[in-house]
Each structure stands twice: as C-alpha cells, then as structure tokens.
Amino acid sequence: MKAALPQTSNVQTRRIRPPFRVGSVMLPLYFMLLLLPIYWMITMSLKTNEEILAGFSLWPQKLTFEHYHEIFTNRAWYSGYLNSLTYVGLNTVISLVIALPAAYAFSRYSFQGDKHLFFWLLTNRMAPPAVFLLPFFQLYQSVGLFDTHIGVALAHLLFNVPLSVWILEGFISGVPREIDETAYIDGYSFGRFFFRVFIPLIRNGIGVTAFFCFMFSWIELLLARTLTSVDAKPIAAVMTRTVSASGMDWGLLAAAGVLTIVPGALVIWFVRNYIAKGFAMGRV
Amino acid sequence: MARIELDGLAHAYRPNPQKPEDYALRPLTMTWQDGGAYALLGPSGCGKTTLLNIISGLLRPSHGRVLFDGRDVTDLPTEARNIAQVFQFPVIYDTMTVHDNLAFPLRNRRVPEPEVRVRVAHVAELLELTGDLKNRARGLSADLKQKISLGRGLVRKDVAAILFDEPLTVIDPHLKWQLRSKLKQIHFELKLSLIYVTHDQVEALTFADQVVLMEGGAVMQTGTPQALFEEPEHTFVGYFIGSPGMNLLPCSLESGNTDAVLLGTQTGAPRLPMDAHLLERVRGQGDLTVGIRPEFLGCSNTEEIGTSETRVLPAVIARVDDLGNYKLATAQLGGYTLMAKLSEDAQVQVGPGWLSFPAHQTKLYSSSRLVR
Amino acid sequence: MMKTRNNKAWFLVLPVVISVAFSAIIPLMTVINYSVQDIIGPDQKVFVGLDWFKEVLRDPDLHGAFLRQLLFTLVVLAIEIPLGILIALSMPARGWKASLSLVLIALPLLVPFNVVGTIWQIFGRADIGLGGHFLASLGIDYNYATNPLHAWLTVILMDVWHWTPLVALLCYAGLRSIPEGYYQAAKIDGARAWATFRFIQLPKLSGVLMIGLLLRFMDSFMIYTEPFVLTGGGPGNATTFLSIYLTKLAVGQFDLGPAAAFSLVYFLIIQVVSFVLFTLIQRNSNPTATKQGTP
Q: Under CATH, domain A82-281 is a member of which superfamily?
C-alpha cells in the first residue's frame, strides 16, 4: 500500500515546502552555466568560417545557414544521422521486446539460478567498451554483421538490455500479483493478459526504459564507430572528418553537433511526463 | 494550555465562494475549552482533517481567524503555535534511536541537554517506552512508532494542544484499546487539550468529553457523547451516531389534525400521536421526519396500551436477530422498516407485534433540524 | 511479494540471455584467448600462460594511467554527488517549471559523447571559444592543449557538466517519493532546513545515491570518448586514463596480448568494486530485487 499521509491543500497561500530551498538563485545560475557551452556551439554553427577564425564575437555578425545547408544536402552527412537514428530505434525496440518478458519472469517467478543470472546481466553494464573493441570487430566481421544497422543495434544490447531488465523489473514489481491472478481467473490467456492488461499498467516504466535505451545508444560512440565503415556509419563518426586542407571546419562541426542534440531534446520533451510519473512510482 | 477560538472560520479552495457548497469548511464560530478532550467525528470528506490542519497551522484558512488564549495565531506558522500533531501514518526519524526521536523537538529548540534527558525519561515512562529508548526507531511496530510520535508532542513544555489525525488507523485492533486508554490517562494526568479526528464513532464517543460531528464541511452538532446520542439536533447526527443509527421516518401533517403525524403519504398510513406543542411549531412546514433510536423503540408481540408517555402502534415483526448480548428486531410499519434493540432475554417472535414510541425519545425533525 | 517457483520462466528469460551472451561471452572468450597467447604470425600462436599479465602489471605506463584514472574518478565523484543533491533540492516539485527544469537538466545527458568533447573544444579554445576567450581576457594564459593542469581542469569541468544531471535526476526522483507528512511533522518538531535535510531527506535519498554512486563510478572509470576528443590523452599523457591507454595499446601499438591481459584486469577491477557497491544497494533498498523462493 502506498503510504499517503494526509494531504494539505495545494491551492492556498501557505504551502508546506521542503524547507531546504537553496534560494531561487542557484537553479537559474546553474541552468545558465549549463546552457552556455551549448549556446556557444549554436552560435558558432551560424557563423561563417571566416568570421570564426578572423576574430571573436558573442553572436554572429553575419548570420549564415550554410553549414546546415551543407549537412542537409550532402549525403555523406545526413546519412550519418539517418544511420544513427536507425540503429538506435532498432536497439530500443529490441531491448524492450526481449527485456519485458525477462523482467516479468524475474519479478514474478523464482527459478534455478535466477539471482546469479540477474547479477551476471548487470555485470555487462560494467564492461568497459574499450575491452571489447577488437573482439567485437572480429566477431561481427566473421558473422557478416559488420557495417550493418542491425549489427550496431545488437552490439548495444550489451548494456541496454541489462539496464532495461533492471528498470522494468522494478516497475513490474510495483504491480500487485493479484492483478495477474484475477486475470487468469477471468479466463485471460497469458498473451492476452500481458498485452491488454499488464502493459498499460506499466506504461510509465516502459516510457522511462525506452528513454534510457534511446539515450545510452544514441550517445555511444566507440562501438558504433568500430563496427561500421560506410553503410551504417553513425553521425559521430562522420563528424570526425571535418578536417580539410583549409583546417578544421568549425562551423560545420558545430552545426553537426547541434543537430545531434535535437533528437535527444525532442525525445525528452515527449517523454517528460512519463519520466516525472515514472520517477514517482518506479524503482527509485 | 490553550483555549482555542474559531472566529468566522471557513475555507474554500476557489477564490470567490458563492454557495455553501463551494466551501470545504463552512463558516463556523466556536470555542474549545482549555484542557478539553474533543473528538472531530464525521465521514470521509466531511472537512474534519481540513479543520484540524487549520488549527495546527499546516493549512491557512481562506476566511476567518484562529485564536489561542485570545491571541490571533491565524498567520503564525506551525512551529510558532505550541501545538503537536500525530498523523495517521507514524512519522519517525529512521536514523535515530527512540531516545533521540523524543529528544528531537527539544534539541531543535536548543533546550539544555540535562533537561532534555529528564524530560525524555519522563515521557518515556509515561508512555511505557523506557525499555526501548536505546533501540533504533526503524523497524519498530506501528503502535510503538505512534507512541513515539505522541511522545514527541508530549516532550515539549510549551505544548498547548495535541492534535490527532486518525492515529489508530494502522494499529492492530487488539492494541487500539491500549493506546486509547493511554491517551485518556495522559489527558487526565497532564490536563492537555486534545483534539482527535476520527471517522470511527466508537473511538470518538469513548475518548472525548465533547464530540464535534461534521458533515459536508459543516458542524452538525457539538456536545457530549450523551447529548449527541439522546438529543441529536440533526437527522444526520441521529443517523451517524449509534449502531444501528436512528430510525428516520419521513412523515406529514394531517390537515385539521394537531395531535398526530402520518407516517407515510398513502391513505391509511399509520398515525403516530405527538405532543401538540411540537406540532404547533411545524404547522405549515413540509419536510418532516420522525426519529427514534433503536435503543428506545419498544417492540413486543403482546398488545400494549398507548399512553401519553408512550405511543403504541401495531406493526409486523419481520425478523429477530440474536446478537449475543442484545437482540435486534426488524419491523415493518406502514411501508417503513424500523429496527429495535432489545435486551438479550426479550421474548419476541416474528409475526404481528407492537412498537412503542416513548414520547421523550421520539424526535421530530423539520428540514432535518430538531424541533423542540 | 511472493514468487512462484517455476523453472519454465527460463523461456521468458532466454532471449535476453542469448542476446547478451552473444554480445558478451563470445568477445570475452576471445579476449581471454588473446591474453594467454603470443601471436607472432598469422598462424603462429604460442601459449604463454600468465606472461602477458605479469608484463602488463609491471608496466609503469599502466601504473600511471591507473593512478590518473583513480584521481579523476575520485575528484568527479566528490564534485558531482553533492552538486547533484544540491540541484535536486533546488528544483521545483511540480508544475510547468518542474517539466521545464527536467528537460533542461537532461539535455547534457543526451549529447553524444564525441559531441560533448567537441562542445568543450569549441568552448575552451582560447582563439575561438567563449570560455577560452573569457579566461584570456582575465589575463590567464589558458591552454588545455599544452598545459597539463588546464587540461585536467577542463576535463573535470566537462565531466561535471556532462554527468551531474544524472545524479540530480536520481535525487530528484528520490525526493519526490517523500510523503508530505514527513515535512509537516518536521515543522511541528521545530526542525529547520538543515535538520530536515539531515534527518528526513538524506536518509530517504541514500538508496538513489548509492545507485548514482555505482553508475558514476562505473562510467567514469571507463571513460574514453569525451577526454579523447578534447585532449587526445594529452598533453603528453597527462589525461591518459585507463580506457585511453588500453585503446592505444590495442589499436595503436597492436600489442594484442598485453592489451587483452590488461583488459581482463581492468574488467575485473570494475566488477569487484561494482559488486561491492551493488550489494550495498540491495541491502539498503528494494526487497524485490533480492529474490527468494516461495515456501
């Protein structure tokens, strides 16, 4: 039973606040410092390279979209984004699909070796990617998964699946067993019960998990770069070739960087309610 | 100790309340005597917790004032008000021992350590917690935790009143009475004002000197448990207090007749004689109800003669339940179902019978209000 | 909650086991294989037992990288955890401000690792960067590419910028789970801000803090991309942390044997520390995470 102490009214002149308010100065200050480097990158993406190298200005003297234009029209660039989005999406879906039944099993059943299995799963989250680079490279080459979207998606399962199982298990354990049992008594088959009854109950947990899968896969560079060359090259790898004869193409680099933040920002915006609710009731 | 006065106190969540229904707490003015034990009783949502939180300062009322010993405390925050509150779910500080839990309010107020030790020991003895002082507060049973919560209120010298918000909810039934008697003992020894919110009338009636019965944000009646039982001023009070509650029979006046009411609207409805002066008061009024408590309603199979003290009407006794130390008879009278509580050796059977209405305990309500 | 004993649950777990085994066990086997062999030519492999391990553990460059890594991890943990708590305490609890705060806070977490490095490159260079330019205008000869101390400070600042939000988010979630009544009782007990923090908020946060500590320890100990993009491990090897050193060994010098041996040691260190932290978490919080069979 969720402990709910008597609520005082929210809508009135003197609410009880958690008394430790470090002052409303701290937060805006922190946000400003947080956003400053990002602001700078955005600024740089809108300047011409001449302006960047010539002098220093707080905002673009001559606003230009030429870098963005380059990225959107040059296949070498925009394919990087598409590749990244593809394997991240694949990975999120696969992670969720295989983690859900497993999390359900860990939550509802005890079986031979379950504790050890759970811990072993988590140890994979703790594996330094650098350790696995070469073996991964050779393995994927030998099975023909090299330079494929699905290859990277599968590789990222290494750390996303344990995390998903861990998070989902917490949410599933928050749903009382009685619901399962009632559904069986009512004649639901396991499949129908799982999809029509159970999943809607944990949709906040699924939202939180999908968010983390997206996040950790999107930001990962090492494996994604090692396991691809041309066809599935992620945007991160594309960004490393902005050095040309005329020197570092800062504006282009900045524009590319800005565009990598956009999908993430959109994802957070859309799942913000799930996160807020999920935090309130989930594992943590 | 404090005399608590509520002056035109009301609370509405919306800024401009128009109708009574807009108020969570309807305007009320009353005084709570210093050292009294009050119960705030009522069904869920009746506003009792709202009222409690206004008195303790956790909620600021939208209208009116609260005064402690004549001093306006409406704008004072909780910690400045010399009250303690015990909540429904025990609140203890997990990381501290029982002793430190009890010492916490004193240490926060910078009381010198020797005095802290003395007061904690005193309160611990009062609550029979002395043996547990060294233990960690985490992991104790619910009733011990509630005792600690209570102790934190008692340990302060300046406490004027202790407020309880359904504190026995999480306590095992067989321990509830223990805590209740402990509360009574404390009240007796320390002479503190105690205000106790509950929806359980047994708790309220056994605990309090004065019961404040609330419903829908309004105070229905304030009085001793006996007064609420014997002289309910509102049909709700009659219905809520007592188990089972008062029998309530809508009735009407017979035109041209001033010595009886009709129990029902159809022709041939039973006529119940009533005091003429009462009927005089309600002449011309529509919404009338007769109320009589099962404890006072007589019921037997043998015919009795009605007197001016006791009116008798024929009825059909539909069932009789033997409930151990009393019997409960259910009777049909003119389309109404009435219950009567009888002694355990009463000889009553199903079948035709008679209901007797003692005049003194048969109440008349007009628009739900008691007519005197 | 009671669990049913049912070994058929293995079917539900099978897809997870297979996929993770594929991604984990096979590569691990390969690494173990390399770590005990000397590969002289395409078909010439000699079993050398624990030789690589001995050589690697004596390697002074490795010791240097290890110490640097340790210092780095300790410093960033010491900054990020208190700062994260502080931020979480400052964030609004509900309303549109809360949503906005959540989105802003989470932004650094969603930047690809290499872009994090790029952002700080662009920001920190004295010639084109806002930060670099600002420091230069104060008279400081700031250059993270040539000055080891500057490099360290920049790398640490970058990590704090990047990962404090994770701690803050976890603590924020933990704070939201504290029922209002606790604060009310504390007020009645006369507790002021510090006492409320120490006796109500901090104890209730201990669970999420352990999770945050575990995650941050693991990730900071494995850090590669961000410092690599920013400094390349330099100047010299001033910011060469363990993963960077390992990758240099394996990819740069193509010393597979030592690299593999070191990989295993590296892996082991993280496993052991994480195991300790993880067990502490289990004991502290959720009983559902520790499994028991039904009677």
A: MetI-like (1.10.3720.10)
CA distance B91 to chain C (A): 6
Question: What tens digit of pLDDT does each residue of C282-295 get?
Answer: 776 554 433 333 33
Chain C residue numbers touching A284 (CB-CB < 8 A): 170, 173-174, 177, 207-208, 211
Q: Identity (one letter) of the amino acid at A67? A: H
C-alpha distance from C243 to closest chain A C-alpha (Å): 6
In a domain? residue C3: no
Compute the distance between CA of residue B170 and CA of residue B137 in angstroms, rounded to an integer: 17
Taking the Cβ of residue C144 and every Cβ of chain A, the question of whether any pair is shorter than 8 Å is answered with no
Quickly tell me which residue has 């708590």 as its tokens: C85
Contact between B59 and A5 using a beta-carbon 8 Å cutoff: no
Dihedral, B72, B76, B82, B85 alpha carbons, nearest 10: 120
Euclidean distance between CA atoms C288 and C271, whole angstroms: 23
Which residues between 18 and 37 in chain B have a beta carbon less than 8 angstroms from any beta carbon of chain A? Answer: 24
Please tell me the class of the B243-370 domain.
mainly beta
> For residue C186, which phi and psi values (nearest 5 degrees)?
-65, -40
Q: Two tokens at C63?
A: 């010791």
Domain B4-239 sits in CATH at: 3.40.50.300
In a domain, C166, yes or no: yes
On whether the CB atoms of residues B149 and B86 are closer than 8 A, the answer is yes
Q: How many residues does chain A have?
A: 284
* Amino acid C293: pLDDT: 32
Could you tell me the CA-to-CA distances from A202 to A97, A98, A186, A281, C85 in Å, in that order?
A: 14, 16, 20, 10, 28
pLDDT digits (tens, 9 = 90+) for A248-277: 778 888 888 888 888 888 888 887 777 666
